[in-house]
Amino acid sequence: MKRTLWVKIDPWNKEMVTTAIESGADAVWVPEGYADRVKALGKIASIAPDGDLKPGEDIRCCTVTGQEDEPEILRLCQHHRVLLECPDWTVIPLENLIAQNASVVVPVRTLEAAETACGILEKGVDHLLIETDSPQELRTILLRLRNESETLSLVQASIESIQPVGMGDRVCVDTCTLMQPAQGMLVGNSSAGLFLVHAETLQNPYVAPRPFRVNAGPVHAYTRLPGGKTAYLADLKAGDSVLIVDAKGRTQPAVVGRLKIERRPLMMVRARIEDRTFTTLVQNAETIRLTRPDGAAVSVVELHPQDTVLMYVEQAGRHFGHAVSETIVET
Questions:
Q1: Residue 287 pLDDT > 70, yes or no?
Q2: Rounded to whole angstroms, what are the CA distances from 22 to 138, 175, 177?
Q3: How many degrees, rounded to 5, is the angle at CA 125 between CA 120 and CA 129?
Q4: Measured distance CA(320)–CA(232) in Å, rounded
Q5: In angstroms, rounded to a whole number, what is the distance separating the alpha carbons of residues 15 and 41?
Q6: Residue 81 exposed, middle or buried by CB count within 10 Å (0-12, 13-18, 19+)
Q7: Which of 50, 98, 102, 132 has fewest C-beta within 10 Å?
Q8: Helix (H, G, I), strand (E, B) or coil at 299
Q9: Rounded distance between C-alpha atoms, residue 327 and residue 75, angstroms
C-alpha cells in the first residue's frame, strides 16, 4: 500500500523541507507564516494555519489513554484526518483502531518506530507523521518506506501452445525506471493468471536495449498495479504507477512515462498450471520475452510446448480493478 507520509519541521528548516520533498514526502508541517516558503521550494502540500491543510480544522489531534477514547476517534475519522497522541505509546491502541478500519496519523521519530507502525496487524497505519531533526535520518526513513513493496508468489506454468492470431493494437509501457534482467510486468488475458513479461533489458542484433520499457501486450490485457489492483493496458497514462516484478516475486512501483500503442502482429500464448489454463497475447517478434523460472528471458518465438515460464495466479475476479469474491468466468 502507498502510505501518506508527512514530515513535521518546527522550527523552520529549509534543508529539512528540501530533504522531505526530494525523498518523497506527501506534505510538510511547518510553523505559521512559512507555507509560501514551502511552495517556493517544490510542489508539495503544506500543513500550517495558513497552509493547504489546517491543524484544528482539517486535522484533529486526539489523545489515546484507553479503550474509552476509541469511539470518539472513530467518529472524527469519518470527516477529518486524526493525529493520535499516545502519552504511554504502545501498539495495543493502534491494533484496536486498525482492526476497526480507523484511518489515523501516527507520529514517529525513528525508522524502527515507523516500521513497527507499518507492520501492525500485517496492515499497518495509513498515515505517518515523521518528527526528526536530522536530514539524513529523515531521508533514510522516507526512502525506506517509499521502497516498501509486496512480494508475490510466482509459480511455474507449462506452455501448451503458441499460435499467431493476426493483427492488433499492442502497448509498450515506457516507465521512469531502468529495469534489470529478470524484471518485467505481470500481464494476461485474465486477471486470475498473469505472465511475467520481461523488460527490454537484453542486447540483441535488431534494436538497442530499452531497459525502461516492457512490450506488454494488447490494449485489452490486464496488468498488475501497486496495492493489489489491476488495470487494462489501454487505460494506463503518464503519471500512473505500475508494478515491476522480478523472478523472485519482489516488486517495486514504477511511474509510467508514456505508452506506445501500435498495430502489430500478435500471437497467443497458452499455458497450464495443474488443471487451469491461462492465455496472454504478445507481439509476434523475437524481441518480446517471457521469463523462465531461473529468471532468464525467453523470446516468445523460441517457446515450445512443455517449456516453463513464470506466472502469478489468484482465485478472485475483478471489478474496476479490485479483487472481488463472485463468480466471474474469463475465457
A1: yes
A2: 11, 19, 17
A3: 125
A4: 10
A5: 10
A6: buried
A7: 50
A8: strand
A9: 35
Task: Name the residue with cell 493468471.
Answer: 193
Residue ranges covered by each domain of the chain: 4-146, 154-324
Q: Please tell me the pTM assigned to this model.
A: 0.65
Crossing angle of helices 91-99 and 70-77, rounded to 10°? 50
**What's the angle, vertex CA 297, arms to CA 222 and CA 300, rounded to 5?**
65
**Residue 296 is placed in which grid cell?**
532468464
Gap between the Cα atoms of 69 and 38, Å rounded: 35
Cα–Cα distance, 83 to 28 (Å, whole number): 14
First to last CA, the chain: 30
Cα 30 from Cα 37, distance rounded (Å):
10
In the CATH scheme, what is the code of domain 4-146? 3.20.20.70
CA atoms within 13 A on the CB side of 206: 6
**pLDDT band at residue 126 using 50, 70 and 90 as cut-offs:** confident
What pLDDT sits at residue 328? 58
26 DSSP assignment: S
Interior/surface letters 192-227, b for 16+ CB within 10 angstroms, e for the rest: bbbbbbbbbbeeeeeeeebbbbbbbbbbebbbbbbe
Q: Which CATH class is domain 154-324?
A: mainly beta
